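Researcher: I'm comparing several assemblies side by side, and this is the next one on my list. It has 791 residues spread over two chains. Same procedure as the others: predict the full complex and return the structure.
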Amino acid sequence: MVYSFRGGIHPGTHADPGYKSATNTKPIEKLALPDQVILPVSMHIGAPAKPIVSVGDTVDLGQPIAEAGGFVSAPVHATVSGKVKAVEPRLHPNGSKVLSIVIENDGEDRPHESVHPYDFASMSNEERIECIRSAGIVGHGGATFPTHVKIQSGIGKCDTVIINAAECEPYITSDHRLLLERPEEVVGGLKMLADIMGVQNAIIAVEENKTDAFPGIEKLIADDPRLKLYPLKCKYPQGAEKQLINACTGREVPSGKLPADAGCAVFNVDTAGAVYRRFTTGMPVIRRIVTVSGSAIAEPKNLEVRIGTQVEKLIDACGGFKEAPNKLLMGGPMMGVAQYSLEIPIFKGTNAFLAFAGDEDKRVADPQCIRCGKCINACPMHLLPVYMNVYGKQEDLDNAVECGMLDCIECGSCAYVCPARIPLVAQFRLTKGKIQAKRMAEKAKADAEKAKAEAEKK
Amino acid sequence: MYDLSKVVVTSSPHIKAGDDTRSLMLDVLIALLPALCVAVYTFGWRALVLTVISMVACAVFETIYNKIVGHPNTVGDLSCFVTGVLIAFNVPVSAPWWMVVFGALFGIIIVKMLFGGIGKNFMNPALGARAFMMASWAGLMTTWTAPHANLPLFGTVSLTDAISTATPLASLKNGVLPDATLMDMFLGQTGGVIGETSALALIAGGLYLLWRKVITINIPAAYILTVAVVTFLFPMGDVSRVQWMLYQVLSGGLMLGAIFMATDYVTSPVTPRGQIIFGIGCGLLTVFIRYFGGLPEGVSYSILIMNTLVWAIDKATHPRKFGYALDKKKEAQ
């Protein structure tokens, strides 16, 4: 049986489905250690971490250099050994400058004293979760939600753990290569996560374009009846959390709720790998597998790099650009963020860096909706993008919400299929901002009136 | 250092599918080709001449309008050519060329461009043009020539030239089965407007559109099935139900309307349930007009009437959003 959901799109061409052929047979290559790493204090969703080192300090590989700034936060670790060169705002992949710790590599790669293997079996659940928290593990699929928060809020509510190895974003093959070359990390991590969360149902969900990785996984899961391998239909956004849960379990995460409300906890493959590496080697999150691809890249590759490595080094390792790029992307082409500089560092959620030389996004000057309805068939949330666009433009916010504006996951399926080339997702982001602003204004007004009424009472 | 001078920053997604408005319209034109070939075979080269005149007129009027209001020309999206073919398909082959030009003028300028151009019109431009020509030149619009009559390529058709014939619909109007055999009707060897006669060619075009995913099956299936079911349940006169139904389904503009006109993106609902309701509505109105109306044919007016209801239908048929059924169930508990 192949698992799937309703809606979605099939990016790619007949000869190259998902545009993955440039890298899906390329083994992971370790990139030479960079001269310096730039580690932003925000590589996760939640409060920024607080630096605990200062300029001039000597740090070791895996040493904590910034502590979590709250419950929903994650610490940052040195990803090379060396000297702290600067603690200052640097350009972040989100487009703004973010406080970052710059470490000059001394080339020794000297592990920190805190890095030692753990005896998973003899640890209590609290100790295990703390061990994951202190390793700075976050969702490596791109959303970078701190993993310990997901585990803690899911224990008792979840009966299923799903490893998200769909990798539905076009071009990206880093998860594919990890599954194929190091399945023991993923399966080991899944077993640990299933133990911690106390579930009897642990699923590795993989899109069918990665069948070469199946035998390795099947061999490793054979001795544990909790573990299952689910092949998924190749369709974008199969790896979106809600669609993945729906495909694997038939459940729908209620609108505005979390996956735990559908009894599921979903972890990225590399997150599971990070959990495994933390317990077996003690090493916190210091590296990432990044697919470097796209029509402008001379020699596309899957690279294993230290977090904080500047993108320019990855481009160098791939033979530079064969044509001047007109689009640089951190992440996949569907939801990745466009960049304008190569100085930005690889962060915890970076699974790909793409450079396009051609007219991949096919922009047009004055797009006109022809109401073809293709966006409706493509929407994995079963919304009405055509009307969300109309109402959004008219600032008719109530009707926009009624058509599903706030349920939009911004996967880009509608904009991908749109024959008129309307930038639907950009338009929806604007409208969402307006809705939020309106709701905040209404709340502020209500609060002010309440305060006034109370003051009058007194 | 790398050359980043060409780099642009935009919102995601950063790749797009190959199909655009132009390629979709080109697919519709390709799908109309079989019907055009049959029309040329059945009615002679004059059918092709009228079609080309209509297409050129539509393109010229759209260009002139864009020039006047200072818009970039939109002819490149090819939608005006689809309108052009459909306007020609909706007139008898004996119609004079100037009437088709006036039809194009009305369809493009009044129905389409004055409402804002592609995507903004609330009526199908070709059907609007047909209604306009019907109201203005009813005689010319209802003069039928028998298949394979030798008509001049351009000139006016005099009554002596026209080997006039009755369309199958006229017989059906009187509750009598037409003389034409069902096979003639299926292949298009009967009287009628240029593009409507051959069910086979129109269905072939429809299958092409389905295969290319230009249209979904919702509207044509709902429309044709509704007509089939209603005519089967309520035959007029003393005839076999099945034969009556088949003649009704194969005659007039039903196939052309259901496959190519009711599926016009701009003037049909976008929700799947809405499309089915739209198709059923068109079907009921068509049979109603054929049975009780003053005219033998009701396809064009049915679709025009349903066109005006599209926004209301869409609004009433919002699909269930992902993650909402659970909420309702919980509230009910």
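Model: For your comparison table: Chain A has 13 helices and 17 strands.
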